Every structure is written in structure tokens, then in C-alpha cells.
Amino acid sequence: MSLNAQFPKQVPFLPGHVFSDPYKESHHKTQQFSNINGTVQEKTNFIHEEFDPNLLDSMKMGTPPNLTYGSRQPPENDYIPRIQPPWLKYDRAVLRFYSYFQESVVENPNENYRIRQVIIYYYLSDGTIHVTEPRVQNSGIPQGLFIKRQKIPKKLGKQDFYTWDDLQLCSNINFYDRVYRICDCDTYTREFYEYMGKPLSLPEQLPRDNFKAQKETKDLKINPPDTKEYKEYFEVKLGGGHPNGGLNKYLSNDRKVLSFDIIWDDASIEGQLNYYTLNYYLADDTCEVKEVRKQNSGKDPYPLMLRRQKIPKQPILTHYPGMTLKKEEFYSPQDLICGNQVRIYGRDCFIYGCDDFTKEYYLTVLGIQQKPATLKQERGKKFYQPVPPYNGYGYEEDSLGSVYSLQPKPPKKDVRKNFTQDQFILRFESRLISEVREENSRRFIISFYCGDDTVQVYQTSERNSGIWGGKFQERSRQKNPLTNDYYTEKDFQLGAIVQFNVYKFQLMRADEFTVNYMKQKSDVFKEADIKQIIAKLRLFADNYPNFDSFLLDLMKKLDKQLKGQIEFEELAAGLQELGFNLTLQEQYYLMREFDVSGEWKLNMQAFWEGIGGKRS
């Protein structure tokens, strides 16, 4: 009997009240598994197994079990289980996630927060998690195991624990009121999620804090800027040759210059578009910028905008040369392409062209085809000089001669037009348009001289009319008040209204020569072209169901009495009733074209056939 069994039962079973038995000699633990004759056996002496008394009786009597109480249920799992438990299926399977959390830093002028990287391990066998932080040298922070291996609840005080399905990339997760950001994982973890049908998203980069940047800057080793010069000096001093790395490049590219046309848009108040020529010397990769001079530009002659030197892409400006240790990146031929911009010490210049040698060099050496850009045409500056009013002497050209020159010259005349058109005179009978009724009955003959575009007006009178006939206006050039241009021959058409000074005239009729002249020059007098008149008349047929109904309606409205011939007044009234807006000159030439008898009457049969009707 053990010593503890001899103690009275009133002694509580607590630490300090239980003592080890000094008389006990065997301290071994009972083994449940043993190996007998090469076979693993299990001791069942200490295992209490429940048994069915009915089954035991049936086995003693030799009666089949199915006749007593039913068939025996098949076992769910054998000694080789069909459904593997997690501790067997996921043995030594661990998911690894790379994450970080942000920790505030106080009373430190260099940083106000720090990024601490941790690794989250999830054990699939039992669903436990442990978090560790990789050690960083000289960080001053105790690092290593951060959270011991355990099941971590989603909320404190509840039995809902995190599973592998809750751990996703680019997401936040809360362990004991500390938020971790999961940013990446290892290859096995990604393959496991793909196997389970829930692939992970793309990883994200770890943020960078000031501590790491200062640590990298502290560990950075920079050689002194004059190390190369010291080496070359000692090499020459010991008898070695003076190095010349750019000699080969100089000999192969001497006198080879790439020339580009650039433009700089000066956006200041008094700025403008400035044109320059950029020369790139292939021998030493230097550039110079020359100004393209223009006459009367108003600028001082400064031939060079930039002397020959290497142009940095981002210039580092210091108070004294050599104060900075940063390396500058300079422009190369690959950067100078037509259509690109080059920044020359704060000035953005646009490359819009180059010469032929530059195009050939880029095509043969670099395999780039230079395509010049097209620029908008720069509008020249226009200076407005007011023209003094017409003084009344001669024509306006005579008065303008004293404006354009100190020594006035006579205006130039169109001699060719004067020689070829001087014999053509267009005469029209017109009436005066006035607010006074008696003035409207006055008749005039207007003569237009095609050689010099002058106009002369005569007034006709009848006996005992009280109106004197004769010259009404001298031959001179007249201006159209609507367009402020001089009258030309195309302005004189039948029915048109012309104004000379304060008098308005309507052209009523023309002589035979004028009618034939306008008919021959149908490109100028388009209303005298009979083909265009008929085509314009046929356009009104679109308002009818078909062309035949248009012709029938036209003939009925024009020849209402079915006489076969109509007067000019009947033609004008019929067209007005139909709504066909033909001018007076078009009606005149229409009447003249289909006047078969010569009695100034329109023949309906000829008109029917002329506009496209079928011949009966």
C-alpha cells in the first residue's frame, strides 16, 4: 500500500498535502502497446469494454445473431481508417504567411512609427497558430517568438477560433487586439489553397519605414570622388601610360554632328515662340543650342542659348562645383527623337525636325526612322493702320495711293480685260424705285461697260411728260452698298435692284445683244442657262406622287383656258400660284426659249416636251 493511501481522507488533495512514497521501488509506467513475436499487440487489461449480454448469450448457445436481435452494424473505421483524422492527414503540414504590423514610436525625431515583420505559422493538424518575428541586428527590440503555439480565438472569451480559411492575402487579421497585415506566403501555402479550391490573391510589397532607410544609408559605402584620379596619378607616376578612354570614340565620330530643329514656347508675359538649332557632337556627347535669327525680331543678337557642354536630364545645381556626390544622367542620341521634348535647364523644348545626315544616322545605326512633326503656321503680327476716309477726288484707288506711298502712283488697270471686253456693253431698261408715286414711272437706260466695269445712266422721256431726257449719271464705277464692292457684270440681271448713290433702279428688260451675251456666258449668269432653269423647275416634282401628275397640274395652272399659248403675265401668275419661286430673269429666258411663233407667247406643246413630257 502506498504512503498516500494511509493518510486520512480529510486531508485535501492539494499541492503540499501529498507526498511521495519513500518505500515505492517500481516507478515504471504501464505500456499499452507491446511487441510479441514480431506482432504489435495491445493490452486490454486496463480498458473497460462494454458488452451486450444478448450477444454473449447467443454466442454461448450457438444461435446465429440475426435470429436473436438483428444483424451487426459494420464498423465505421478499421485499423486502417478510411476517413483520415486531421492529425494523420495533415501531419507536419504547416501554412506560412509573411505579415507585418505597425508600431508607434514616441519621442524619436527620426521616426514616428516602425514596421515590424512577423511570420504566421498555421498547423493544419490541430488548427493552432504561432507567430514569430525574425531577428534584426541592432534593432534594440526583443524579437523571436511573438505568440506561442495555441488556438487563437476570433474574439476574446468565445470559442470561435481562426481556421486556415480566415487567413487571406492582402487582408487584416486581429490576434489579441493587435492587427496584422498579411502580404505574402510561401509556395506550399499557395498550392494548398489552390488544391482546396480557394486560390489566393496576388501578394503585396512590404511598406518601408524610416528605420530601414537609415540603416541602409548607414551601411552604404561610397568611395571618395577622387579615387579614380589617384589611381591614374599613381599609374602614370610608376611609368604607366596615361589612360584615354574616349580616344577611340573621338577618332571614329570626329566631325559627326546631329542637328535638330527645336522650338521653345516662352509662356511669360512678353514671351513668344523661339526657334533654335540643337547640335549633338558624337565625338564627346556634348551639345550646343544656337538661336535661329529672324530679321526685325526686335531682340538682341545672342547667337548661343547654351554653349557646348553635356546637357543633364535633371541638373543638380550647387553653389560650388563638386559639392554633390550624385551622378547626373545626360541626354544621348536615343533620347533625341522627333516629337519628343528635351528639357534644357528648365526650358521644355520640342523637337520638330532634323537634317538629312541625322535621319540617315538614326536609320542605319539605331534603326529608328525620324519623322518630322508638323507645326502650326505661325501667324505674323498684323499692325492695324487706319485708312483715312475717301477725300472725293477721283476713285478710291487714287486716294489710297497717297496713303501707301509718299509719291503716289496711278492705280494699275487690268489692261488685258480692257482690251478683250471693251467692246461689250450691256444695256438695260430700268425704272426708278422711289417713295414718291410719280417718280416710279420714270424710265432709264443703264449701260454697263464690261471693259472697265463702269456704269452710265440715261433718262428717257415722252413728249409733254414734263421730264427732261438725257444723261442722268456720268460714266463711273459704282459701289454696291450691300457688299461695299464695285459692281460687276454678274450683278446686272433682269429683276435685280441696283443702287447708284441714293437712287435705286430695277432692271426690267435688256436688248438683244445683252440677252445673247448672258446666254453665252452661262457660268457667270447662271439664271440665263435654260438647262439649269428646267432642272430647277423639275425639282418641284418631288412634292407630287409622280412626275406625270406634276406635269398635268403645271399645265392646268398655266393654261387655264386651254389656248395652247400663254402670255408672260399668265406664266408669272401661274408659277406664283403653284409656289414655284423662279426669278424674273429665269421666267424671261423660259418664255424666250419656248416662244415658237415669235409673238412673245409661250407654246404649251413645246414647253411640255422641253421639261420632259412625252411627245403626243
UniProtKB/TrEMBL annotation:
Residues 546-581 form the EF-hand domain. Keywords: Cell projection, Cilium, Cytoplasm, Cytoskeleton, Flagellum, Repeat. PROSITE patterns: DM10, EF_HAND_2. It is found in: Cytoplasm, Cytoskeleton, Flagellum axoneme. Coiled coil: none annotated. InterPro entries: DM10_dom, EF-hand-dom_pair, EF_hand_dom, EFHC1/EFHC2/EFHB. Pfam families: DM10_dom. GO terms for molecular function: alpha-tubulin binding; calcium ion binding. GO terms for biological process: cilium-dependent cell motility; mitotic cytokinesis; mitotic spindle organization. One of its GO terms (cellular component) is axoneme. Its main location: cytoplasm. Residues 91-197, 254-366, 422-522 form the DM10 domain. PANTHER family: EF-HAND DOMAIN C-TERMINAL CONTAINING PROTEIN, EF-HAND DOMAIN-CONTAINING PROTEIN 1. This is EF-hand domain-containing protein. It comes from Paramecium tetraurelia.
